[in-house]
Fold each of these.
Amino acid sequence: MSLATEGRRVTALDIRARKGGEPIVSLTSYHAHTARIIDPFVDFILVGDSLGMVMHGFETTIPVTLDMMILQGQAVMRGSRHALVVVDLPFGSYEESPAAAFRAASRVMKETGCGAVKLEGGRRMADTIRFLTERGIPVMGHVGLTPQSVNTIGGFKVQGKEDASAFAVRRDAEAVAESGAFAMVVEAVVEPLAREITRSVAIPTIGIGASPECDGQILVLEDMLGLSDWVPKFVHRYGTLAGHIEEAVKAYAGDVRKRAFPAAENTYAAKPQAETPRKRSGA
Ligand code: KIV
């Protein structure tokens, strides 16, 4: 079971207080039903903009809109009662200025009821993170591989392999921590860098492809369940759902074709007719 919070939802402050303690557990979810299943076991649920790739089949997260994030954020809030729900701000909704970011983030908070937002970027987003947190919006940062920048970083590549890149990611992480974020995702960085960042910043680091050195871990649910076609090196498949779904659908198709489904127990019978009393002869 996850964080003990006496029946209330986990907050951003609860997560912040877990720095250096028991590892923080997180998964993504985009739906009410998966949120309901994972809610008792995780500390926070991320409604990630990876939903664009996972649910909609886009090649990147770039096409995801604020309306898409709000719709799935609402579903996850309806499906969960315990975990903190964090909703990603999608590409184009926050980078222009702190005021634009506030407009997008406040819409997300009002329309979903979630407890925090996440945005990508280090030093370049520090003023925005400060602007939002000073105005009541808890912000989770995201450094290392930032998928919304795929077109400028040249692909989904591991970060921090060379000294210059490691230095840049470390400075990004420090800027995020100093600007008031309550936690940060560290994505696809080499292990020594994840360790250094985790030791040097005062807020929890949540790793994805960033080694066990982080204060917590996050995975995309569909990847760890074995629903995605391709899984990166850093994912362990804890399930093989695609195979189970295929077997179930094959069995259903076979039953329909040979009229074995629906069976009698799946069929509504008509209400038995009340017998009309026979007239007695001579009555
Ligand atoms: O969108 C997402 O799912 C994410 C995780 C990869 C951290 O940002």
Note: The mean pLDDT is 95.
Amino acid sequence: MADAAAMRRALELATRGPARGVNPRVGCVILSAHGDVLAEGWHRGAGTAHAEVDALSKLAPGAAQGATAVVTLEPCNHTGRTGPCAVALIDAGIARVVYAVADPGDRSAGGADRLRSAGIEVAAGVLVDEVEAFLDDWLFATRHRRPHVTVKWAASLDGRAAASDGTSRWITGPAARADVHRRRAAVDAIAVGTGTVLADDPSLTARTPAGELLDAQPVPVVFGRRPLPAGAAITRHPHAPITMRGADLASDLLELQRRGIRSLFVEGGPTLASAFLAAGLVDELLVYVAPVLLGGPRVAVGDLGVTTIAEARHFHFAAVERLGDDLLVVAHPVQTRPPADTTTDSEGTSRASTSVREGN
Ligand code: AOF
Ligand code: ZN
């Protein structure tokens, strides 16, 4: 079997692992010097054997001598929950290693160099585009040390998220709401501020239009310092809520990434959305626009530290969809700014901080 065919098989094996969690899905095929498949392995999730070690465990001692290991991710170089795969491959007498994507982990990287220093031939980049696409959410979170952040709001044509008395159910129609639930099911976690928990008592589950739970449920994350009311709907969520103080969003996001949250849906309210936007920590906006006017003070997004037009945050429209009577606008930032509390403009004044003020 040629390298590319073996890598395709390794990718197939990788799909058997769990799609969510701290660790990536990884597959491995061990080929003899003649290209025959000697063993296959895959990773079953954090705390279990890595793909290489799983494949090697299926061989008799000495059987991997002179063989080639084909693995979707660069073999790790660290002792985490398990030992370094680079060392396991060296000890097994592997002569050649072929991998697709480099390991971006801060502690786990460096396996390729370690293999080379042990005299093993190493080839990188085989089927790299396919494996990158397969691991996209894990790679994003590991490379950026935070989940991919989507901020969503529903607003009137004039950009209001609620009427003056605070009522907001329902600005958009059923098609827009169904779209939100489908997207909730596709992310690892949903964030709200404590103000929203107190004001709206959201369940933060992903449901069908009939109200049944979808198969995948995002973990609820609550930002803010106020305690959750004992009877809050969120306490009946299938996953226990994670609470974050919100004093430093960048470090909160790092903590979520370390817990295996690769994608985060920020659902509100305006205070939390504004804090993420002000901090430059947003990768995607989902704006559901209803053909109504509400006027008044309840804007969808509050202060972003933009005081003059030159400081406007720029996005481009990635997609516009009609959902029933409403529109969905998907927008991506043109450039991500560094966290606001670490930047100082030319006059020496610092911009808005990355913390969440109390509100909704
Ligand atoms: C590999 N092969 O099959 C996987 C790798 O805590 P640990 O010991 O499970 O290490 C987790 C890290 O190892 C993970 O974040 C990623 O960088 C790498 N995963 N590496 O050589 C595998 N699953
Ligand atoms: Zn490993």
Note: Confidence is low (pLDDT under 50) at residues 341-352.
Amino acid sequence: MNSFFLMVSPYLYEGGLKSKILMFVSLAFLSVLGGQLVYVTGGTYLPYVHLLYVPIIIAGFWLGIFTGIIFAICIGLMVGPFMPLNVAQDIAQSTPEWLLRTGFFAMIALLSGMSAQITRAYLVVLKRRYLTDFETKMPNYKGLEALYKDEERFAMLTGVVVIKMRQVKEVEKAFGLETMSYVAIKTKERLKEVLSPETVLGRVSNDAFAICLENKEEALKVAQHLSQYLERTYKFDKIPFLIEMYFGIMPHVKGDSDSFRTLVKKALVAADHGLQNSLEVCAYNEETQDFSERNIYILHELREAIEQDQLSLNYQPIISLNKNEVIGVEALARWGHSTLGMVSPLEFTRIAEQTQLINPYTKWLLKKSLSQLAQWRKDGLDFVLSLNFSMKNFEDPTVVQEIFHYLEEYNIPPQMLEVEVTETAIARNIGKAADILQSLREKGIKVAIDDFGTGQSSLNYLFELPVDALKVDQVFTRSMLDNSAAEAIIRSAIMMGHEMNLKVIAEGIETKKQLEHLKKLGCDYGQGYYISRPMPVELATTWLDAKRTQLMKIQA
Ligand code: C2E
Ligand code: MG
Ligand code: MG
């Protein structure tokens, strides 16, 4: 129904003078034709006179009540004193009869005009709703687009700044759906305080606002001003929370070929790019566009790569620094794409994490790595397998089920699997992380905190987390020998880890000196290029076999 009204609306209330004159003349012609028909068919005693309601209704509806009534009176007169009741017998109409008929005609014109007015008013409301954001009462995307359809106005536009909010879904989940409406209204008020009064504001999606700059305002300056002065803390039910905001900029130069729609799209791409790369203010350029296209392309290709088993795993050994024994192997994903080349697992897992694709990916990872571990176990190679997980993985309960399913299928004791989750991922939702990791640990699976030392400034959270090991990030290992602060971090991680009964693993050992120093510091385990690079499965098998033989020789 709504779409019908929107379709007819231009005809209903945007008809210009020309079309009104045309309508007027057509209706006048139709009326005279109707009068002729009444006459040639024999007079008003026959029902043809009712045909004349048609031009009256149309006139009332399209040309308004006044014109409708004029039409009604003229037609009433035409088929009144000037029209016999019966042409053949030349019987005239009685005056009350044609007067009454003219009265009916006028009434119909009035009703038709009134219903047109109601319809028009409804259409105005509908159009306003269509162009306005329901919650903030600001123009929405369509509203802004309609505003800049006007060429003169569009020429005044100097740029678009898009504000993209992060953690919107998390906030909605934590406080309820209505929170976002509160956040949006509050943000609108704050924007109005910070921006000049004539700035045009709109809400282009649930988590994005657009600021349209006119009067020579510079997009970059406005975005920088906002990034500095726009308040980002909100309070709901007395609980304060923070919403990160990213500002995407797209300047507009008069005469540029970009449409308004393209300008907003580009500003959105820039804001997204900023969000992905932690750049609060980010201007659009070809690179950002390439980036968003690359993301979409990767997402598309990755789906296929998973389905067609085109991904592979490399395995990197983890050894005990004291005994030089292999205690574990970390599986690291590899994807060589025909046109993109090698795509880093950091890049594609981050992209997959933003969609449901992370779940089929992780299921693939579980199947591939656990079946390999089962094979190694059959061949007498026994160690813990470490797998990298993102917290997003655990949002799908079937992923956890799948872990147990494969452990059972391949007959692998749960303690032979270690789940690595990064410190930053845990810090985002510590309560939830603790619950999930606890449930894994209860079943015997080991838990390690990956990239330890890079994410969280406070270490208190460690006490809340059920973990078995800390993997100290490679940046500390790399600079440990020349940088006393890095060494202090490793030293305290080892001390604290041991205090809490955790194993400490140093990542990124590249030299003998680093390995020896870590040994001296009391670090339990190590991993890095000095020990071995991540290897494809055949090489890893040979390496692990050789290592076992070497160890057996030493023991013998
Ligand atoms: P990570 O888990 O911290 O893995 C260690 C990364 O350091 C690996 O990079 C490894 O190749 C590299 N590395 C190991 N030893 C050395 C060294 O001595 N020197 C240097 N410079 N680098 C070393 P890679 O394979 O590119 O993986 C990067 C990250 O991607 C991983 O960091 C992990 O967070 C993520 N990742 C890899 N595979 C998966 C996966 O299957 N799922 C998920 N969610 N993430 C994965
Ligand atoms: Mg890892
Ligand atoms: Mg790491």
Note: The first helix runs from residue 2 to 13.
Amino acid sequence: MSDTPIRLAVVGTGYVGLTTGACFAHLGHHVVCGDIDERKVEMLNNGHIPIVEEGLESIVNAARSEGRLEFVLGAETAARGADIVFLCVPTPQGDDGSADLSYIEQAAAQIAPVLRSGAVVVNKSTVPVGSTLAVERVLQRDDVFVVSNPEFLREGTAVHDFLHPDRVVIGSADRDAAERVAELYGSIDTPIHITDPASAETIKYAANGFLAMKISFVNAVAAMCEAVGADVAAVVEGIGSDKRIGMQFLRPGPGWGGSCFPKDSRALVKIAEDHGYNFTMMRGVIDVNDEQLERMVSKIAAAARRPDHDLSGITVGGLGLTFKAGTDDLRESPALAIIEELRRLGASVQAYDPTATGELTPHQQQVLDGIHLLDDPLEVASGADVIAVFTEWPEFAKIELAAFAARSRPGVSIVDTRNLFDPHLVREAGFEYDGVGRR
Ligand code: UDX
């Protein structure tokens, strides 16, 4: 091996690209990150991180000050002269449920002319099975290798997940190219699975599909617990202690959301269908998730004493808007889907989220339009007919219930879609309480 440091490029500085670039730089590599958004590049070069992601700011700024991390405008500028180029651009859902590859194809077309001979292009974006070949076709470079290296990063803990992975998966038709990518992770103590590209791409979808299935399963079990008078927490503890099942991803809630599970589960069904397999189990997982949102709306309607779902004149106070705690991401947030339905049924909604205060980004402004945003969680109770916990922000669990009750109308219900509160304490404070699968 030569002593010349490996030069990495990362195309796209969303939460995956930025985390990937920053973590590789943290591990000692030299990384140039390119993005088409001029404002974002400028922000990053001024040391500002555009997303809420624990630990990211400090590793970005440390690597920048040590000269190992740069941000530039455009994919070509980043990829010129690089040994390994990571494609971390979005793959949004297309109209028919399939993944839209246009960003990946655009990025590949832009870097094709500037790639040095022998370079490796790595697909990190979640792409349909067969996309490694699709990128090869766009690149039209026989002297460049394309490898799949899916990410398993959770928003909010992405830096931790990158540096402490359960495994790294690399899919390549060329063993040497796979090993060059594997070497980048050399200082991390983790198993590395080298497979063919189609298997690596399938691993990513199957992992997200399986996790979504666990959550849909526990949400269905929670519904059953309500019907038979069981307690879902006791059931989860009882089944999760079986090592074959495990405790993780069995937290009942309002349904799964975010930038990955909804689009990846639909894409998995579509990919299977395109290849002649009807993935009925995955369809069921998605249906249970849609039903879960409806069940939460029914709980809120029942708490408002409007079982007919006519919510005109009702004010719902919402705690949390993001799709989960620890992120400012509102994409496919169950909170927003439930709120949209409540508003369609005639309710007014006032809500607080720790990441949606002060100046809103244009995206936030657009999706939060019509919701009365508050800057104090306690104010959620003022004038509300029902209070709903939508996101499991730890600070909500610390709300002083007496102060909350002092602002509330008497006998108001708290519908806790995250089972965040202790039902006894909530009832003691004078509220009615309904959680998910709890008595
Ligand atoms: C997910 C995958 O975990 C990650 O590996 C992948 O690369 C990207 O997609 P993320 O979308 O950040 O990560 O969130 P995750 O923590 O997995 O949660 C997804 C959704 O499931 C959220 O809406 C969350 O609230 C919900 N969830 C999660 C539950 O309702 N119950 C659980 O037990 C776990």
Note: The chain has two domains: 7-195, 232-434.
